[in-house]
Amino acid sequence: MKLKLIKLKIVQQRVLIAFASVILIVGLTIISVQFAQGYRFNFKHKQVELTGLLVVKSKPPAAQLFLNNKLTGATDTSLSLPKGSYTIKITKPGYQIWQKELPIDKGLVTQVEARLWPISPDLSKITYAGAIKPVLSPLRNEIAFVLPDSEAVIDWQLDPGLYILDLSTQGFLNKKEVRLIAKNTQKVKFHEVISLE
Prior knowledge:
By secondary structure, the protein is of the alpha+beta class. Among the domains are: about 50-115, Immunoglobulin-like, CATH 2.60.40.1120; about 125-190, no CATH class. Helix content is about 25%, strand content about 40%. The chain is built from three helices and 13 strands, in the order αβββββββββαββαββ. The strands form four sheets. The protein has a four-stranded antiparallel β-sheet, with no helix packed on it. Strands 10-11-12-13 form a four-stranded antiparallel β-sheet, with no helix packed on it. The chain has a three-stranded mixed β-sheet with strand order 6-3-9, with no helix packed on it. A hairpin with a 6-residue loop joins strand 7 (about 85-90) and strand 8. The longest helix has about 35 residues, at about 1-35. The model has no long low-confidence stretch (mean pLDDT about 80).
């Protein structure tokens, strides 16, 4: 009789544990689904609110993210925000500022993919290729330079000669336009010229 009571208590405990586990799993699932839908607990007002999700990405990554002129972190992040209109500003040193006014709605995802454009021209190709004798035009909108016969010029798949870098145009993906004006010949080698002025 005593053994039957012990077995009955063990069965009751197992049923109670299984029932509590099911209730815990269902409760955590409901909370997870509500959290994924944008519900957040507002500690200031001590209530649950439905928020919107702001997903911010940038190229190049890891730029500063400002919401309503307050630094809130870096890009490539997600933020849960109350419904409203927000000024989103993305900055990175050496790049133009990206700014936009966006509405955030309850329960919706607002995605931002900002492309930041460099402020300065990309001179790495001509710098690493060994550009010499640069001369700025009187209007300051072009640079003339010479690329000599060198391994670097061959590695960058450029021809030795006289080039113009147009600083006023915006080429594809903000690349400044570099034009070959004249190639080196057997008789004329521009790197041997004393000056381009």
